[in-house]
Design a protein that fits this description.
With 450 residues, the protein is of the alpha/beta class. It folds into 2 domains: 198 residues, 3-Layer(aba) Sandwich (D-Maltodextrin-Binding Protein, domain 2); 203 residues, D-Maltodextrin-Binding Protein, domain 2, CATH 3.40.190.10. It contains 17 helices and 14 strands. The strands form 4 sheets. The chain has a 5-stranded mixed beta sheet with strand order 4-3-5-13-6, with helices on both faces. Helix 1 packs antiparallel against helix 13, helix 9 crosses helix 17 and helix 16 packs antiparallel against helix 17. The longest helix is centred in the C-terminal third of the chain and has 22 residues. The relative contact order is 0.17. The N terminus is likely disordered.
Length: 450
Amino acid sequence: MGAGVYYYTTTTISPATTTATSVGSTTVTSVGSTTVTSVVTKTPTQAPVTITVWETYAPATTPQSEFGAFNKSLSAFEAAYPYITVNVETQPFGSAVSAFTTASLANSAPDVMRLANDQIGAMVAEGFLTPINQFGNSTFFSTYTPNSMKDFQYGPAGQYWGLPENINGLALYYNKALVPTPPTTTNQLISMAQSITKTDSTGKITTAGLVFNAAGGFGGAYWWWPFLDGFGGSVFNATGYPTLNSSAAVQSVEWLNNLTTSSKVMPPGVDYGTADTLFISGHAGMMINGPWDLSTYLGNTSLNIGVTSLPTVSSTGKPLAPFLGAQGWVIASGKPLAEQLAAWDFISFVTNFNSQKNLVTMAGDLPSNVALGSDPSVTSNPYAVGFLAQAALSVPAVNTPQMSVVYADIGGPLGTAQPTSATTPITPAQIQTALNNAEAACLRDIGAIA
């Protein structure tokens, strides 16, 4: 067993029944200018084989964590596949991809790594990953939700580069003491938020109707995406070029800015930490955030919260649609056949029903497994039900190399389109200028990587 991993429990789970899938002897896949050739025999060997796995879970000292759930699943995998030795190494999540890149260039990459789906495109373009369609068939892939598999799709339709172990994305939290019934439209949201908001003698908001991370260009645009989509805009057009300065984009930013300047239901410049504090302390009626902080909110036993889908935009009739992301497992390119087959056995096992159920019950993750969505471990959890309802209305997170450029370039210009106080509104022309600047920066830097 590799360094950095230890077991919390000796309890095992029953491994899922698997059947070796017949695959062709050679698969050639072209993605952009990169051609990946993979050779796979029809019958996997059971000769002893060793694989190196990089996991990126947050370190934890309790079994009730993603790290604890992974170790439980790992124990079960080793029992089911005694001929496969798994050397596990812990990598910090934030630096794992750059470390994998460095290792790949030096021909020393691990066989398997866990990562976020939005890194897929750049790694495929560099030729660092092995396509997995050669190992599984459509029936197997249909055991995962369609959008979670799209998160790991890049290049030709249906070409997959990894398997998702969970899903994540934004939804609407609400404090039931202040919001007994959540809004279903943006007009209702504003009306409810105004009825909740309280200020002190100086006009400072003490109880906010709505909060979320609005700092730095709406959290580097992550909190902007659902509004951009809901107002009829998009990050890219059909040909793959950014469309960040559309009229819909301007309208969406203007609506968000009005939360501070005209509706006055959200403090100006509220950042992630401030939004968290206001909601946890009971001084915010609604909050837009993901499942990663649910346990923190539930830690305040005096706070009675709900989770539901974001409302529909009243002016367009479209739902606010956040990006649906996923964490998952990929297989490195250029590895010997026996290691590729063992790596496939590993990633299909740690993302199967039982392994995902460990993540659900021990860490509160949201499943990408279709059957698990109707399992009592999920359906009895109202918070999971709320997030999964939002997931059904979300869009797969863009995972192209161009999207990495957008994330790098959008925050600064978008931040200049936000009001610094409730009394300093930003005009549509100023918003348009900021988005024009963002678009120009993205086009310049996308051209540099083309």
